[in-house]
Records
---
Amino acid sequence: MTCNNCARHVTEAIQGIAGVQSASVSLQNSSAAVRWNSGEDKNVPAILTAISKAGFNAKEISANASDEPRQSRWQWNLMLGLAVTAALMIGEWIFHLMMADWFRWFSFFLAAIVQVFCGAQFYRGAWRQLKIGSSNMDTLVALGSTTAFSFSCWVLFRGTGEHIYFMEAAAIISLISAGHWVEARVSDKASGALKSLLNLAPQTTRRIQNSEVRSQKSEFDLRTASFANSALRASHSAIEEEVPVSELKINDRIALRPGDRVPVDGAVLEGESAVDEAMLTGESIPADKKNGSELFAGTVNLNGRLIMRVTATGEATALAHIIAAVQRAQTSRADIQRLGDRISNVFVPIIIGIALAAGIFWAIHSGAEKAFVIAAGVLIVACPCAMGLATPAAIMASANAAARRGILIRDGVALEKAGKITAVIFDKTGTLTIGKPEVAAQHEFRIQNSEAGILAAALARNSTHPMSQAIAKVSAEKTELTDWKEVRGSGVSAILPSSTFNLQPSTLRLGSLTWLREYDVDLHVGENFIADWSTQGATLVGLASESELLGLFAVRDALKTNAKSVVAQLQSQGFKTYLLTGDNALTATSIAQQVGIATENVFAEVRPEQKAEFIKKLQASGERVAFVGDGINDAPALTQANLGIAVSRASDVAREAADIILLKSEIEAVPEALGLARATLRTIKQNLFWAFFYNALGVPLAACGIISPIFCAAAMGFSDLIVIGNALRLLRWRQK
């Protein structure tokens, strides 16, 4: 591979194989790392065949092969080319030896070395593309350099004394090679976040031996050494052993000292400490960990000793999922890229035609020498590399900038969609609110002595919904219920099989007031309680037996501290903001007023499937909608929206449906993610404009003989650097 476009073509070829989850192709290392979907057979021959059909050769290497760049020969060839070019330039431009016979043959010898050794990669690339009926940048470079070299050989062997262009032939290959080498080095910075993620997890860790091993070892120690030494060994080496992380299994116990990196995902069994999770979540404040707290691979234990139990290893860890997400985003294609791809596909044949036409024109008017030089210049200056880099370079830089902020972007299409959003819809629970509701008050009807709380807690205990979990804490007393069911977004029901609390066997329902009304439950008896707590922003949950209301529970969830500022930021950026919730209208309006969402943009008592319908209506009116949610109930809305954003601790279903996942615990990353996406889309358009402008200007100038082949080669490399440099500005992007 000679440039990032080559790496992109290889990536696309690999990702076209069934079962491949993602592929990361390194131009620097001339290698590809492939991740397979779980349960899929690794079809390596199919990958090698696909790469071959794309015009490249590949072979399988060991998983333990070194990741050090394998470009030493390529760099030596570059140094050779630059040295030869410099020698020829000094001879021609400083000592004016271009007409001396010995120097002309000396130039031929040096230029031939450059053609054979330094130009081999371009010639091989052009030949491989020709074999599959295609063409690329290598085709233009090989044709341009060969044109200048061949014409010079023809002049030299004829002995006509005309000007020769061996220096130009060597300079074309050397300067383009230098440009691509710098391009690879510069673009390597754009993948810095991914490399940091890959290096987060340690290679070894201290596993605590199980009791059987410890007892056997202690018994051996007591028989073979003094009691003191045995006790010392039992308290250190006999308890902990240094093992490779790859040997860890689920439920293994690991000891973490201050300063240690967590090797895999797990849960704290013993100890308390603060853990730095900044590399994964972007949070600068360490997270406090104690018994039962989750630990994630790659995070750093700061100030206490912890014993953790392994809950996930290898590809199942959160770190592995994040790495896969960043790789997928870096190597993905945005829709806007198709324009550049379509132009690049027909660009090379068109340029070859223009070069031939220019050569014929100048051959007729100024002779063969001028014709060859101008044709070579047209071929070189028109290289479409910058056009092909315009989009992927920006996406790669943006994906890394986002990852450093705790924002995971699914792919380039998601970035492009995020840059076009006009409206942002928020779910309430767990999004604008903390997501840990508590029962603030309860009121019973007909039954007394907290009997409604006992029944409600029994109904709610099997549900994972935050509201249900809050009500389940009201009472620990158990009551026999049968035929338990959960209606998504509405509530839970069960059969009370026998007389309890003066109630006859009946169907009990616990859920939203809207849902209870559908079963003709009379809510008038609780109007005052409902009105009082709704205006305070609480969610009202009712308990009913058939159509009779037994109790009401006011469940309140605190607003996130920065919810109001987030909404204000979005509105200042020109986004329309909406609140869409299944809660009652009074509660929804109260929450909206606290965060600054206009009352007319609040839609309450909306079921999960109705959320998707509401988004459809907004889209039909011309809005491009981003939906921000966190629960399983939000999956339909996340899928329907133009852009789905799942907040931290979102359910697995919500994460799968989302285009952007926020690893931060707060929603302050929402305006940051949308702002970065807008900046990315703007950068892509700037890059495409520059690439088109460069070719639109360079080709006519070269065809008219205004710029020389050497300048054309330098300009081509410079255009690539401008595109990449513009993309790298995204790494330093900051929210205004």
---
Amino acid sequence: MKKNRKIIQPDIEIVRHLSKTLKCDPVTATILVNRKIISPEKAFVFLNPSLNSIRSPFSIKDMDVAVNRIDTAITNHEKILIFGDYDVDGITATTILYDFFKYLGTDVSYYIPHRSKEGYGLQTNHIPNHALPKGINLIITVDCGSDSHDAVKAAHKAGIDVIITDHHKISEPLPPAVAVVNPKRRDCTSGFDNLAGVGLAFYLLICLRKHLRDKNFWRDRQEPNLKNICDLVALGTVADIVPLVDDNRILTKTGLEVINSNTRPGIKAILEVCGIKKQLSTHSIGTEDIAFKLAPRLNAAGRIDHAKIAVELLTEKNFNTAKEIAVTLNKLNTFRQTCEKEILEEILLHLNENPHLLENKALVLSGQGWNEGVLGIVASRLANRYFRPVVLISIRDGAGKGSARSIPGFDLYEGFCACFDDLEKFGGHPMAAGLKIKAANIERFQRNFETIVEKMTAPDDFVPELLIDYELDFDHISDKLIDELESLQPFGPDNQEPLFAAGNIKVASSTLVGGNHRRMLLTQPHGKTQKSINAIHFNIETGKPLEENFDQIIFRLRWNRWNGSKTAQIIIEDT
């Protein structure tokens, strides 16, 4: 697919000042300015992320109310239920609250609904079917609850208080809970809108621990070091694809340090199942490992079976037991990949037979009995492939459940709001959302959604854009520069790994590896000299003849670590 290439042009004077003050390469300073980090003070915090630099979470609306109600529950020995979501964000948020309350000796349990049988969030039937029989006094939701109005009313009627902690978009009136801790509520000015559900749960624990400290609660027991649970905060934050800037960056960076210390049996076990253990001497766990190895296996529990399996893994203290659970998750993930492949192939065949569908601004497709747990992944693949919003709906017994993924130029949640009359229920983010719909309404929704997408977008929104940080000649590449680029990690949304451009590239040698990857030695003439560098281009079209020259390549620059040594390597993004 054709992409618009755009080289970012930051203010040269700001770049020079930052480079001189930080004593860093101008390339590094340029990247920082491109990320809107323009002052030396802000750059120092960015390059030296520390838990000491996080903002005070006490400013989050209703946080004090939530903490006081939880304190009452602890004091009165009430039964607490943690109610979570079935994705990695919800799983990790559930785990950190559950473990913390267990450490306090509280009577606590957790509940995560079955994705296909129960659906998302706290619902009315959970009160008589689960909370009342268990004698629950207080329900704390994590990563859900913002639209659970009827369920909160049912709980209140049954004498059960509810505290909502959530980061999804929320509309008014708010659910009638004791506390609604959601930074996206209109009257919350804390500025924590980008927190993942697990980040919000972590901040609840920071405030609760401080509240208990002020009451001398910890005089007879060791106060827990919350840094130790940042491994789970990092997992949920990266998996939920929230911006990796400000507090999210600090929490993720700290969490990766904890993960690399190899302490939690569940994470250690799943790393071993992924085959990462053997690499640890030369490989530090990073955001890519979470996104492409750990998160898919943890998510597989909720997509194929039940998410409680993942919570069991993360709460398990015995490594051998954790290893057994990790093996189970790995098998579920393999089955998930099979389901995903089958649905994707069915859709691609359908689009091949009905090419007119690709003339639409959005793809709204439905199928009988599709596995609802993998629809989000398939929708994401299609959105990347055709670069337009995609909604996939599984139909069973006249009812449809769907997942949607979008592109940067279109807000899915707002689009669904505009199609309110067509839908039974919906929720989510600008880039990812879920819905329920009557099968009879799908065709009408398809038409209305297409109209909304057309109204809310411009033609350029449907052309992917490659934002290039710097035109980097090979002779500028140095060990110091690559080290500085590593200091910009962890990479993710709003702090993408830097992209570079270089022209007049010659291929000195080339070989295929892994079936469809090409390893090359590239050179770039520069005056009377030329510098060579190793490169790899993933997922190429092997049927095309190899070009001997490239007018321009777009690439990332990294260390390639192997057998205790490291060499410079570029990863080609586009040619």
---
Amino acid sequence: MAHLLGGENLSISFGTRTVLDGVTVGLEEGDRIGVVGRNGDGKSTLMRLLAQKATPDAGRVTKRRDVNVGYLDQSDVLDGDLTVGAAIVGDRADHEWAANPKIRDIMGGLVADVDWHAQVRSLSGGQKRRVALAKLLIEPHDVIMLDEPTNHLDVEGVAWLARHLKTRWRPTEGAFLVVTHDRWFLDEVCTDTWEVHDGIVDPFDGGYAAYVLARAERDRMAAVVEGKRQNLMKKELAWLRRGAPARTSKPKFRIEAANALIADVPEPRDSVALSKMATARLGKDVIDLEDVSLAYDEPSAGAAALFDRITLRLAPGERVGVVGVNGAGKSTLLRLLAGEIEPTSGRVRRGKTVVPAVLSQEVRELDEVSDLRVVEVIQREKQTFSVGGKELTAGQLVEQLGFTNQKQWTRVSELSGGERRRLQLLRLLVGEPNVLMLDEPTNDLDTDTLAAVEDVLDGWPGTLVVVSHDRYLLERVTDHQLALLGDGKVRDLPGGVEQYLRLREEALAASDAASSAGAAAGEARTTAGAASGGGASAASAHSEAEKRDARKELARIERQLGKIAAQEEKLHAQMAASVDDYGRLGELNAELQGLLGQKEELELAWLEASEVLE
């Protein structure tokens, strides 16, 4: 595989802390690499160096002269004064990008529901992220670097991006580097993993699951080596005491296959035991929504209800995940369950012993304790806490979620976004709620911290409701999932997130079919009215007929363009394979030129048909 770009002996420090120390890495054609590591260990810094957005203190970054690199920053870099269309395609004419089926697919997958003429500053965080992604992906980059691309994307957006990256290039072409905490996404799109830690980069074959197994084996081997060293020291001491060496046999260790490595690992949680504990703490009744409807406007004004006569019953110890498109009402559902808002109609019943706690997306609840240190915030709530049957002190619990001894004495106001999120979750847990509701808990957390959070939740014996776009987390900590499909109803998902995505695809297909049928019916009514009316009506009917023909023509042309694109790709592959056969190469080139001529004619016809529709 051809080399695209790389870094040699890269070192960079911030203040007195060395983030990367003599790192050498490279990207080859066909590489699909995920970057993992703790927050602050240098994942984004490494990517910025390789994208030449930052300069190392030592070492250099090299790339092939013709390599085109696309980079998606974690922060918002779009000009807020631009319209959505101008931000994505610049000053290109519509026909320049609309004739490209790949660009049309990107537009449909990311920004189909975004107003093309709206200013960027008026968009939500998720919409801005999708606009930035579309702007990057429509360009023909050889290398794409994505820093937290799944932030603010819903489950559908993450699934679409995974499909796009898997099919964007042939397996031996192009390359991408992605930093993300979404472990399902890493497993879905990556064939290699880089772990950034302690100033170095360790490469692993495979996606996130393979990386976890490989790291577990590496840590086990390190423990074996340390155990051997300690045993040797003990033997040396015994020999010194006795004056003669004892007869001992060398311990033998062998590396098992991946399934043997995890064969003796217990289930993440004892569901039966936790259910018994939850029943003891909660009683039989938790929270029931009975025929609940909610609309922000008065129903008499014709506003569509966010929830329409939904019924939902939470049982003691139940662990449920909630998925849905942005704006479907996921966060509102949590507020209903927590009693922060009241329904327009229907009844909400809460058990007498229910103590709810909600982890919001903003984490503003920590502002009131910003002057305190981390361990003081926890000690202020409680001194000891039971996790998985073990009693932990506040300091031990804080350390379990990644706060080292030094970090425990850092003021809350000085914490990063991920650290604040961890602290807020801990603060909720030590308050001993028995119904815990988490709204997008994975935001700003690295993969190691997510694993620690999941470990804490595994031993937590209450009712758990999680709203998240992180499929891995939902399937890991919840036992079943619910969907908000935007129709005011709550749908159970026996098939999990995969079933939700199928339902969304079916709903979108049905919506498109209904729109087409409505348009056809409208045209038929217009034509009938024109037949019985005057000359103006006849002119209108003629215009509608032309539009109907234009739509059919557009559909036909797009099918033809799709076939030509496949033939063009096939010819390019044949030409690459016939590079030494000049006669065959000439024949293939002549065939390709004829194909390009047909393509140009079809594109002109497409523009003429689109002008009729305008």
---
Amino acid sequence: MSRPRTIISVGGGPAGLYYAILAKKADPSRRVVVHERNGPGDTFGFGVVFSDATMTNLAAADAESHAEITNSFSHWDDIEVHWKGAVVRSTGHGFAGLGRRRLLTILEQRALALGVELIHGTEITDVPALAASVDLLLGADGLTSSVRTAFASHFGPEIDHRPNRFVWLGTTFPFGAFTFYFRENEHGLFRVHAYRYEAAASTFIVECTDHTWRAAGLDATSEIETIAYLERLFAPELAGHRLTANRSIWRSFPTVKNARWHHDNVVLVGDAAHTAHFSIGSGTKLALEDAIALHEAIEHADDVAPALAAYESARRPGVDSTQRAAQVSLEWFEETERYRDTAPIEFAFNLLTRSLRVTHANLARRDPAFVALVNSAFAIRAAEHARIPSVVPAPPPMFTPLRLGGLLLENRVVVSPMCMYSADEGTVDDFHLVHLGSRAMGGAGLVMTEMTDIAADARITPGCAGLYTDEHVVAWRRVADFVHRHTRAKLGVQLGHAGRKGATRLMWAGIDEPLAEGAWPLVAPSAIPYRIDGQVPREMTRADMAAVRDDFVRATYRAADVGFDLLELHAAHGYLLATFISPLTNRRTDEYGGALANRMRFPLEVLGAVRAAWPADRPIAVRISACDWAPGGLGGDESVEVARLLARAGCDVIDVSSGQTVAGGKTRYGRLYQTPFSDRIRREAGVPTMTVGAVSTWDDVNSILAAGRADLVVLARAHLYDPYFTRHAAAEQGQVLDWPMQYPLAGYAPHGGVR
């Protein structure tokens, strides 16, 4: 077989039409047919959105259709956010709006001019037979794809219908920016996504929760009644303009994914293969870019089968990335009620950076005035909370102070606890002095020790650090004295008990693998091993709990003697305290198991005892796994309640992590993948948070803080790679950090200016 000579697209949307254009343009002798179930011009929706980058891709693929599209669209650079009576505007975003009917007309005319056969008003009933009759069959037939259905066993589709409701409307109001309205009435909070796509025509998408939709009675309204309700609600914004309908029914957004996009000579493109929420405006963009990528793969291969495999291999990473961004974005709009108490400037920044694709630095390039306003508002709040004078001009958020109890941190960067497995019977040595001392010299506001165990039988491995003998105190005091004498960093200790994950080999000898010899007995809330081949722990008695609590208290007194500035309890990652909290690992039937209040009883008992032993002016943190990433595990509302209970018991800040509770957990890793948990806990539990997980740049740090997603940002690998991460971040952002007196030249740039 060679390159396809006969090509049929089932579906005449943007993906099917655009691929037909490119295929026919590349080889006019081919027979290219597009079947569209709807009649000519019979479509739904109003405007579609392209970024400037998308337009560049279209120009390279087909200059003729690009020229027509460019002549038809409305271009804007600004985004407006209307929140609590304030209007926040940001510029430099570069979008283009175009009517969906106009786009399809342009593509259809271009396809016809090239000799593509367009057949409207036909429903394909036998997809396998059609596939057998052609060289290449495109499933470009959208959300309800008959092609995907016909070969579902091969494509492996997954469709997730999201909980929010939305309706797609139009209006004659001529928006001058991409506009977000948020209007609350007695029924709930309504969100609007609006943009102009023609001189006197705009898209007006209204979204709300299912609860609000039902409370307003919109679940029982006609299209006309829906419009009447929304025109009353948004009368001030519409300023006399009317809303218009076009198959405007309330629906829930379907997130479509497929395990595979191709089978034999059949391939899925556009919404048939994947969807991306309208809040990032990428559905049509993805469809057109699918067509471009498929065309390139077909034209560079000698056969259809390897071409389709190459298409999917090359295209999937970009689509997966877009879908991850879309997922974060749609979840933000599903949970907007969480931000009710947020000031307009922070709310707008949080909205603009919700998908993680737009960042603090990116916005600073687009709109420096807006970011200066964001920085100023953040710095003023930080200074007020820290009870110190504010700095003018305002520094980036990461270089603002934070007060936790009686502790003042000079910046918001934290060196994460990272086990080094290099202690001798719990005693740290020169390795730890250099390891932690160099990171304190590197400028971080807070440096955390690795998990430091409260007893010999509380260790993960024989190489874990401890704080259960006087010798340990002496060794740790060397580290603390160095940090306090030579740096401005604060030093925190993380106290923990490994529980059922103890008595394992050093990381480099086999992470989580049981010791071949010399293992010590393990305890846990329930007699469930972490791994199938692991040691079965003894279910703890009340006497065991009292002994462990007392070990925590003794370690706390020792930590105070060392001079640590902050103490953190490790109640995450499947270690002892975490296994009490998670329903996956706590199967007890007494007062320490069952409902969350019972599962929290022992961790709260430990926290209360530690709080009583720890100096009152020094803060306590607790690290939790906010999501177990396993069916039936901790997550959602329960993790918020965990944080509330800990805060009431004396915790000053929640260190929000996730996962590692059970060996079979399926963590969805990705950039800043744990930050949404921190954001939710911070706002709903009303407690300061630290966020950790795949944070690697100072831009990410600033973005997290400015959006209010955490109060401190914890970095691990970034500090292993660069102990001076914070100093380098300061230099790149024009900030000055004090250097140790032994480095008098470090603060001067080669040209003589102070850095």
